[in-house]
C-alpha cells in the first residue's frame, strides 16, 4: 500500500519572533523573582535585544507589570507577618538554604522575651573557627571582605543580648580562638565580647573614630584646608605609640584655634578617648581607652583597622532587600540569596583566589608599615611621625 497523503505535517519555518517573546517573558519572570529591580527597569532590560517585530508581539506594558507583580507575590506567598517574636514560627523552607542545607543555626525560642536567631551554614562556621581576625558590626560577621559568615537577628542592642549572642556563637564554634576582634564604638558589644572571649584583643573601627570626631565639627570648618589638616591629626593619634598619645594630643590641641566649638571637640576627645586628671588629682578613665583604638603595634602586620567591609555588605544587602522595613519572610529570603553569594566567594577564597585590594590602599598600607618601622629609629621625632601619617591617611 502506498501512502499518498500525510496529515498534521508542519512544513513551515518556526516562528522566531514567538520564540524570542517566550525568552524575554521568561527572563522578566526570572528577574522579578530573583531581584528587587523596579518593574520599569526589568522590562527595559528585557526589551534591549528585542527586534521591532518581537516587541510588537509582546504583551502590553501594563500586562508585563502585572506579570512581575504576580511573580513576586508567588515568591512572597509567606505566612502572615507576626506581630511579636513569640508568634514567629519558621516553616522548613525558611530554615534551609536553596541547596537544602540547614540555614537556621539557632533560635533562642518562642518563650524568650528577647528572642534572637542565628543563620549560617556549617561551612560558614568552619571558616569562622579557622579565622584569627574577626570583624563585626552589631551581629557577628567575618572574614572574607563583604562576605559574612553569620547573620544574627537581634531584638535590641543591650549588653545582655550581645552577651547571649556571643555565648551562643561560642557554642556553635567551640574551637574558635580569635586573636583580634574589630568592633564599632559600642560599649555593650565590647564589654560582652570581652566577657565571653577574655583572651581576644578587641579593637575599634578607625573609620568610625574619624567620623565621631567630624560629627563635632561644623561643616564650615571642612572648607578651611589648614584647619582641616590640624583636626585630621587627632584621629591619626591612632598610629602613634600608645604611651606617646597623651603628649601628642596636647600638642595637637595647642595648635588648634581657641573657639568654643573646637574647645568642645578637644574636651570630647579627651573625655572619650584619652582620659583626664582632675584638679583634685583624681584620674577619670576614658570611655574608650587608648588601647581600643590605637593601631601602632598592629599596623606592621597589615591587620584590618575598619569595619568598612561589613558596612559595604550592609549597603549592598539593603539594596537587595529593596525596602527599609521588610517583613521577616522577605528578609530571610534575602538572607538565603545572600548565602548563595557567600558560598561562591568562599569557594573562590579556598581555591586561592582572595579578593584584591585597590592599588591605592596597598600603597598607603605599605607606607604606614614603613613609618611604623621608623618610629624607633634614632632620627625619629613624634611630631615628624605624626605629620607623615597625616599625609598618608588623609
Q: Please tell me the overall pLDDT.
A: 79
How would you classify the quaternary structure? single chain
Q: According to CATH, what is the class of the largest domain?
A: Alpha Beta
Helical content stands at 40-55%
Cross-sheet strand order for the largest sheet: 4-3-6-7
Number of helices: 16
| Biggest pleated-sheet summary | 4 strands, mixed
Order of helices and strands: HHHHEEHEEEHEHEHHHHEEHHHHH
**CATH topology type of the largest domain:** Nucleotidyltransferase, domain 5
The appropriate CATH architecture of the largest domain is 2-Layer Sandwich
Global geometry: globular
How many strand elements?
Answer: 9
Q: How many structural domains does the protein architecture include?
A: 3
Distance between the termini: 94 Å
Entry keywords:
394 residues, alpha/beta, Nucleotidyltransferase, domain 5, 9 strands, disordered C terminus, MULE_transposase_dom, MULE transposase domain-containing protein
Written description of the protein model:
This protein has 394 residues and is of the alpha/beta class. The protein has three domains: 16-73, no CATH class; 101-205 and 306-350, 2-Layer Sandwich (Nucleotidyltransferase, domain 5); 207-303 and 358-393, no CATH class. Helix content is 49%, strand content 7%. The protein is built from 16 helices and nine strands. It has helices spanning 16-34, 39-46, 52-57, 61-75, 122-130, 159-172, 187-196, 206-214, 225-232, 245-254, 260-274, 290-293, 308-321, 328-350, 359-374, 382-393; strands at 104-107, 117-119, 133-136, 140-141, 151-153, 180-183, 201-204, 276-277, 283-284. The strands form three sheets. It has a four-stranded mixed β-sheet. Strands 1-2-5 form a three-stranded antiparallel β-sheet, with helices on one face. A hairpin with a 3-residue loop joins strand 3 and strand 4. The chain is globular. The chain starts with 15 loop residues before the first helix and ends with a helix.
